[in-house]
């Protein structure tokens, strides 16, 4: 070996040292930031909403992580904000040691699987997942379960049997829309159905709810159905395209997020405004309120509240505390009635979505209800979803 | 003959990998265990295989922009056809390898630019994948899932698999007679032709072998993720090219290093984990991965200059 060769090795070693030094110092910096950030923005909003029952200590040293696949729309932004607002006080009061949220850069199941495996390595005791894929994360989820990590999936759920699933009852969403129309139009009505992204679980389930409930009301007819992809612009185009060929429309059934587009299409066609079922997007709620002021327009709003992330958080906390929680929980849909509209709207920022805040007590009640509903039946695994939905949504007032 | 003195340029992949690994262990000691190493590296196995596929193509002075789409297509076939009709599935996979070989022959028979042909093919593979699997889903064949979750003694599956891939690729490309000829193809194809080889046959062989590694990547991917989708491996194209370059390969001249390429693939995913452990927002992680790549390339340039001066 020549001395020159030696020198080169030295250089390589130096470079390596420099790299790792840079890595370590960067680490120190970010630690400081992340430790400081979770508390500040949320504190003011949620004073006194988390009570401190005696059995806190059980999870005081437990760390919970949120693995989120996408943050690019108002619903997801609100979901992350709700997580932050509700979990920060829980960390502060020592209910859990940490509740960190992580969103992957691109909505790819491969990235999220790697993220979940990194979270396992970081020693989180529970991972709460809004999944990029119902099936492609199952390998990573299984790794987590094998490592003794509690996995709770919500909204975008995973099918791995070891994971808990927090779902909305989309079937009930469909049924409730039809029920409202039947109440508004006891003598029969022509309905237009706007459907969501084709092929998704949500679209199928919601549509099936509508179809099933319509069997009870032979006087209600769906005269046409268009695909709106849960997007205003797509919906407006689709509805405007089909309107000229349709008879008088009395009501429009929606899947959430597209009501404003429907209203725009009807206004442009000079037709009489039908009864449109709303969801929780701020723009459509604002339009509804304005119409109500002008001409007494009446409707209802049904949606899935982004606060479901917080339900998943408390479920994970209960499981870590050793409670026996049913594997599937159905979160009630979020209803906004006419008399609540102005108050909800006042608390919903422009371009955002209205949210329902679930407290720890709400979640404990939900777990108990589900357990009770499951107890008498034989099929414990699937029953809760149906039974808890069949009972009218519990008196959980939205607390925006 | 300086065959046995290893230049630092060749050691660079090992050095950069070791630095990142030590930093990772320092940050997260849980990673320093049987389970930890497996979690750290198991998702890299399909990427390492795809990287070897890419390396074969780069070795003959071409570049393959269809790796990601091809691996996705393989994954779609594996998670549907191979589960329902195993024979038909294997037949389809063999057909894909043959298609790759034919592509190689075609590119060189008509002197087409590989970058354009493979870019075009990526849309064909992607389209086929969508036809087979319009929405993500599917399941993994039982044996494949068992293979990817096997717990060998001493070292975890991910480490054993990485060693196996590196060793097999090294023997095939660096040590075997045909491997030497194929490397010669990238170095000086005319002299290989003068030695009496049929070039289009050799190119077909190279591409066919790349296809085999692509199929292996798709198989291991499904075994790990338990399902697939038409764009499940879309990031593999760039990752595989980066892995080859990080591992000491050159775009021209048949200068490649299979062991380096496997290390390169591992380094890239390690960089991602390290950044996650450092609590750097994922928005910055892609950029940071790029920074690692540039750093290593800059270091290599430094060494190459020194070598040239001597």
Automatic annotation (TrEMBL), chain B:
It is a multi-pass membrane protein. CDD domains: TM_PBP1_transp_AraH_like. Signal peptide: none annotated. The chain crosses the membrane at residues 36-58, 65-82, 88-107, 114-134, 154-173, 202-226, 232-252, 259-280, 286-303. Its main location: membrane. The keyword rRNA-binding does not apply. Keywords: Cell inner membrane, Cell membrane, Membrane, Transmembrane, Transmembrane helix, Transport. InterPro entries: ABC_transp_permease (IPR001851). Pfam families: BPD_transp_2. It is found in: Cell inner membrane. Belongs to the binding-protein-dependent transport system permease family. AraH/RbsC subfamily. This is ABC transporter permease. It comes from Salinicola endophyticus. The lineage of its organism: Bacteria, Pseudomonadati, Pseudomonadota, Gammaproteobacteria, Oceanospirillales.
